[in-house]
Specification:
With about 170 residues, the protein is of the alpha/beta class. It has 6 helices and 8 strands. Strand 6 and strand 7 form a beta hairpin.
């Protein structure tokens, strides 16, 4: 297995996320589809994979603390609850430049797999507590496909790239 991966490996085309997953013995199923940039766009795409459809929120507070939250696509996030759990101040969403700087990704393609590019460990990772024991459906660093993999394997992926995670209830109560 390759010792490590860098942004340059992906920018110059010498590596791809599927090779990384194979190298880590992470099994997945893939479905190609039209580009999905938002939850609204996803309504026109029928995902046939098994698992929880995931949306990812890249957030920060005014003190420069960054967090990546992975949660059920069809539920509403409680940003105050998320901020308290992270130990952050009031949250706002990151802009495209911050996405590229910290996660090497453009809007619409954010995925917990992007954590591999946070080599400085500046981004905290939070997963929906309802993922435990299930498969999750995420983008493979591009929004023209989705993959289904076990949550256990996703946690193992994060560990390989030296990231701990927090499991939390991230939802607004109705």
């Amino acid at each position: 297995m390759k010792a490590g991966y860098s942004r340059e490996d992906f920018n110059d085309g010498t590596s791809d996320i599927f090779q990384v997953l194979d190298d880590l013995n992470i099994r997945f199923e893939i479905q190609e589809h039209k580009a999905i940039f938002s939850e609204e766009d996803s309504k026109d795409v029928e995902i046939l994979l098994k698992g929880i459809d995931v949306k990812n929120l890249f957030v920060r507070d005014k003190d420069g603390n960054y967090g990546l939250v992975s949660m059920d696509l069809h539920k509403r996030a409680d940003l105050k609850k998320i901020a308290r759990t992270f130990g952050f101040g009031r949250l706002s969403f990151c802009n495209p430049d911050e996405l590229m700087q910290h996660l090497n990704i453009t809007p619409g393609s954010v995925s917990p797999l992007c954590i591999m590019f946070d080599t400085e460990g500046q981004v905290k990772l939070m997963f929906d507590e309802n993922f435990e024991g299930k498969n999750v459906i995420i983008h493979p660093l591009r929004n023209t496909a989705s993959i289904s993999l076990s949550f256990e394997d996703l946690k193992r992926f994060a560990e390989y790239f030296k990231h701990d995670w927090i499991m939390a209830d991230v939802y607004k109560t109705e």
